[in-house]
Design a protein that fits this description.
This protein has helices spanning 29-43, 80-98, 103-108, 110-120, 131-134, 154-157, 220-225, 230-233, 249-255; strands at 5-10, 15-20, 52-55, 58-65, 68-74, 121-122, 125-126, 138-139, 144-145, 173-186, 192-206, 212-217, 239-243, 258-260, 265-274, 282-291, 295-304, 311-320, 326-332, 336-340, 345-354, 358-366, 381-388, 397-403, 412-425. The protein is α+β, with helices and mostly antiparallel strands. The protein folds into three domains: 5-157, Beta-Lactamase (2-Layer Sandwich); 173-278 and 392-424, Immunoglobulin-like (Sandwich); 282-389, Sandwich (Immunoglobulin-like). This is Clathrin assembly protein complex 1 medium chain.
């Protein structure tokens, strides 16, 4: 990946700020970008030019963030995906420093912007991209580059770019959250149309020194390599696994061991996806009764399809209603309900929903006296919830070890959370 120049442009394609790294592409190349991308966008708002294109022997790679374009140009046969990733990382770092990345903030802070561009890229090659490291050299208070020592490029030193040396805490702690979002689409008859689990492993590390961590999961591939029965050990086969760049991928591919030196603070260690048929953890069934166009009644039953030792919190069941209803009345066996006319739904709030339990709601709404008898098509019911200490996939952390030569002592904390993603149940006409 080699970048010749980076441009910050306004919505009209005019240059706000530029940094030329290799001096092999003239600044006039922006005119071609303006003609191909910006002018087409203004002529046809539904046109979305591709983020990578070539013109005149120059490769243009850009992203749009709010009211600015961030453009990178190169003459090399570079990795376009890597350049796009760098541009997104560039905007992320600018957000940490400037809070709001827009035309005015870039002009008002051009000194710190140039300093960041010079630290994050050297002669067109990416260097430091972690905010924690950049903050050692560039501070918002003085708006100038502070360098205590000159460090050679990372490609020479093979240093850990995402973590600084000399970190020290009075109390060493590490927290790991296994968060799973459940996406489900059910038909009005109760059949499962779509189900998917999206999981993330979120970490918060407050550790001294340069510790190495090892994480073990109930990974089916690992158990099979060890000759252990997947059925007896309740293993999980992960799909579309993505790691933070601190993870040693070669070791995971050969040993299925997640080994890494963590960044300091909060970060996402890993994400995964499971395409599997999952029984909805909260099932909602609704019946409607319409009385000659003058009144409509709803009978809603919600059941927790998980074991009693777990409890769902902050449960919200949003039931759509026709636009012209009025005079709402509710009666529930647990929680409370509220009509939200601006969204044409009523919301059933259940603070605590123990596993295996079942609750009922009855709602009544008035309808215009001249309303017709024809059925009205409504959006699906949506369900929102959070279940602590529970994973719907069965993923478990077998161990989380901290290896540190200085002998620091820290107790890892692991927490499991299952929450609703796009959890919808279709309804018939009312």
């Amino acid at each position: 990946m080699v970048v010749s120049s980076i441009f910050f442009l306004d919505v009209r394609g005019r240059i706000i700020l530029t940094r030329n790294y290799r001096a092999d592409i003239p600044i006039s190349c922006v005119e071609k970008f303006r003609k191909i991308v910006v002018e087409e966008m203004f002529e046809d708002e539904e046109t979305f030019p591709r983020p990578v294109f070539m013109a005149g022997g120059i490769t243009y790679v850009y992203i749009q963030y709010k009211n600015i374009y961030v453009l990178a140009v190169t003459k090399q046969n570079a990795n376009a995906t890597a350049i796009l990733s760098f541009l997104h990382r560039l905007v992320s770092v600018f957000r940490e420093y400037l809070k709001e990345v827009e035309e005015e903030s870039i002009r008002d802070n051009f000194v710190i912007v140039y300093e960041l561009l010079d630290e994050m890229m050297d002669y067109g090659y990416p260097q430091f991209t972690e905010t924690q490291v950049l903050q050692e050299y560039i501070t918002q208070e003085c708006h100038r580059l502070e360098i205590e020592e000159v460090r050679p490029p990372l490609t020479v030193t093979n240093a850990v770019s995402w973590r600084s040396e000399g970190i020290s805490y009075k109390k060493d702690e590490v927290f790991l959250d296994v968060v799973e979002s459940l996406n489900v689409l059910m038909s009005s008859t109760g059949s499962l149309l779509r189900s998917e689990i999206n999981g993330t492993l979120l970490m918060r590390c407050h550790l001294s020194g340069m510790p190495e961590l090892k994480l073990g999961l109930n990974d089916r591939v690992l158990f099979e390599n060890m000759g252990r029965s997947a059925a007896r050990t309740k293993s999980v086969e992960l799909e579309d696994v993505k790691f933070h760049h601190c993870v040693r991928l070669s070791r995971f591919e050969t040993e299925r061991t997640i080994s890494f030196i963590p960044p300091d603070g909060d970060f996402e260690l890993m994400s995964y996806r499971l395409n599997t048929r999952v029984k909805p953890v909260i099932w909602v069934e609704m019946k409607t009764l319409r009385h000659e166009g003058s009144r409509v009644e709803y009978s809603v039953k919600a059941k927790a399809n998980f074991k009693p030792r777990s409890t769902a919190n902050k449960v919200q069941i949003e039931v759509p209603v026709p636009q012209d209803v009025d005079t709402p009345r509710f009666k529930t066996t647990n929680g409370g309900a509220k009509y939200v006319p601006e969204r044409n739904v009523f919301v059933w709030y259940i603070k605590s929903f123990p596993g295996g339990s079942e609750f009922l709601l009855r709602a009544s709404f008035g309808l215009p006296s001249l309303g017709g008898k024809s059925a009205v098509s409504l959006p699906p019911i949506s369900v929102h919830f959070e279940i602590p200490y529970f994973t719907v996939s069965g993923l478990k952390v077998r161990y989380l070890k901290i290896i540190e030569k200085s002998g620091i002592s820290a107790l890892p904390w692991v927490r499991y959370i299952t929450q609703s993603g796009d959890f919808s149940i279709r309804v018939g006409g009312v």
